[in-house]
Design brief:
Shape: globular
Strand order of the largest sheet: 1-2
Radius of gyration: 27 Å
Number of helices: 18
Order of helices and strands: EEHHHHHHHHHHHHHHHHHH
Number of strands: 2
Strand content: under 5%
């Protein structure tokens, strides 16, 4: 396995929906609603997340530098897009969400003081609620990680110095474990640069310790599943196999490299096939359009296939959609949800005229956002499915999952309406029992104060205390 070649390299180019912005008024103001702004910013954020670094650190330093620079520029553009949302409506519906996303961008830059500052700005807008609670937890987690890092750093330094003096295995083990704990704390903090550096120190300073192979595995994991930097993670997994061949980590690394190698080849093959079929389909559509209009001037476009059987466009559409779906699924297998979302958005945009295909893509976008914990974005994706594809077979599933997301962001009134709407689909609906149970719980009034459970939950009051009810918070 040491001689295994690097993965097939390719880059999935994200596509944005071009938003029509109307210029109005003598002052030249842009009529661009906050809802459109936030969705545009979210798409830019997805594109930045999905942008892949394909150049190796050691073999293509200049190319890698340019790619890293481009990824940073994408995040900078996204940052500016969210700032525009805030500028348009500093305390409105999308303010906390924009600030949360800005904090995520600061995390990518490892600017932790600014992360905390942004979390505090979220709390200042509204001290309770979904984003405020997440911000409070985020601040607490940062403080906890920083304290653990300081504590374990001191332990590492003390026992490392003792080991140099007495060469005692006990001090060797304690120092190695402490350094590993420092790396893990940086990982929990999402300071992946420092986490990787400290895991590498465990390998370099304590190569005989059991945490050495685990540290290399962690380096590979961070590159793969946090940074989506596969060319950066591949050497780490390969080193596990080379340096610690008889460990469980090595066994897992062999399996992972084989599986991901096959996955990347499949993605690349499907990308090539989708590109070919899509352009063939567009060529035939163009030719048919010219013939229908009776146009004689100009050349007909040539499809990239040897023959054009009856219903050719439908056949090619089916193959193109299948390729996109396969690409999206493989990205999901890698837990690279941003790349999967970008893939399905490309599918929905490119094949928008094919209703079932576009509807399926929109549902998958909502599902992936939900899976990634981005509930606001999931809610909007499901709503787009309802608005653009009201007859879709995914409608029922979308109604239920959208209600789940509303519950997740503590908008209980909308969740209640969603679960009730799902129940109205009939007892044969897949989640009917679950929805019925939730609705029943939401409609209880345990303290008898006249406010149902879901009303109290949304207001942040207790359904156990009749003296604590929504009006008392006004």
């Amino acid at each position: 396995m040491q001689s295994m070649k690097p993965f097939v390299r390719f880059h999935l180019r994200p596509a944005f929906v071009v938003l029509t912005i109307t210029l109005a008024g003598c002052g030249g103001g842009w009529l661009y609603s906050p809802g459109l702004r936030i969705r545009d910013a979210d798409r830019q954020f997805d594109a930045a997340e999905a942008f892949r670094i394909t150049a190796g650190k050691d073999t293509e330093q200049e190319k890698r530098h340019e790619q890293v620079k481009r990824k940073k520029a994408l995040y900078d553009e996204t940052y500016n897009a969210y700032r525009l949302v805030l500028k348009a409506d500093p305390t409105g519906k999308y303010a906390q969400r924009s600030l949360w996303q800005i904090a995520e961008i600061y995390k990518r830059r490892y600017e932790w003081d600014k992360v905390v500052e942004t979390y505090n700005a979220i709390i200042a807008i509204a001290p309770s609620g979904y984003y405020a609670d997440r911000a409070k937890n985020g601040i607490a987690d940062i403080c906890k990680s920083r304290l653990l890092i300081e504590e374990e750093q001191r332990k590492y330094q003390r026992h490392r110095a003792l080991y140099v003096q007495d060469n005692a295995r006990e001090n060797y083990d304690i120092a190695a474990q402490a350094l590993y704990e420092v790396a893990e704390s940086y990982e929990q903090l999402e300071d992946y640069s420092e986490a990787i550096a400290h895991y590498q120190r465990v390998v370099d300073e304590f190569p005989e310790h059991e945490k050495a192979s685990a540290s290399l595995t962690k380096i590979g994991y961070i590159h793969y599943y946090e940074l989506y930097d596969y060319v950066g993670g591949w050497p780490a997994y390969n080193k596990v196999i080379e340096l610690y061949p008889n460990t469980y980590d090595a066994t897992q690394a062999v399996r992972l490299l084989e599986e991901t190698g096959d996955t990347f080849k499949e993605i690349a093959n499907n990308q090539a096939e989708a590109h070919k079929r899509y352009h063939s389909m567009k060529a035939i559509e163009w030719n048919q359009s010219k013939q229908a209009r009776g146009t004689k001037s100009g050349c007909l476009l040539i499809a990239q296939d040897e023959y054009s059987p009856p219903h050719y466009v439908d056949i090619v559409h089916f193959i193109t959609a299948s390729c996109f779906r396969a690409i999206g699924q493989r990205w999901e297998d890698l837990r690279n949800y941003p790349s999967a979302i970008v893939t399905y958005r490309l599918l929905a945009d490119k094949l928008a005229n094919y209703t079932p295909t576009a509807a399926d893509a929109r549902y998958q976008i909502g599902r992936l956002y939900q899976l990634n914990g981005q509930f606001d974005q999931a809610i909007e994706a499901y709503q787009e499915l309802f608005d653009k594809n009201p007859e879709s077979t995914w409608r029922a599933e979308g109604i239920y999952q959208q209600a789940v997301c509303y519950r997740g962001i503590r908008e209980f009134a909308k969740a209640y309406e969603g679960f009730k709407a799902y129940m109205n689909l009939g007892s044969n609906a897949e989640y009917h029992r679950e929805a019925e149970k939730i609705v029943r719980q939401f409609e209880t009034d345990r303290d008898g104060d006249g406010y149902k459970f879901y009303v109290e939950q949304e207001a942040g009051t207790s359904d156990q205390d009749p003296d604590d009810f929504p009006r008392s918070k006004s």
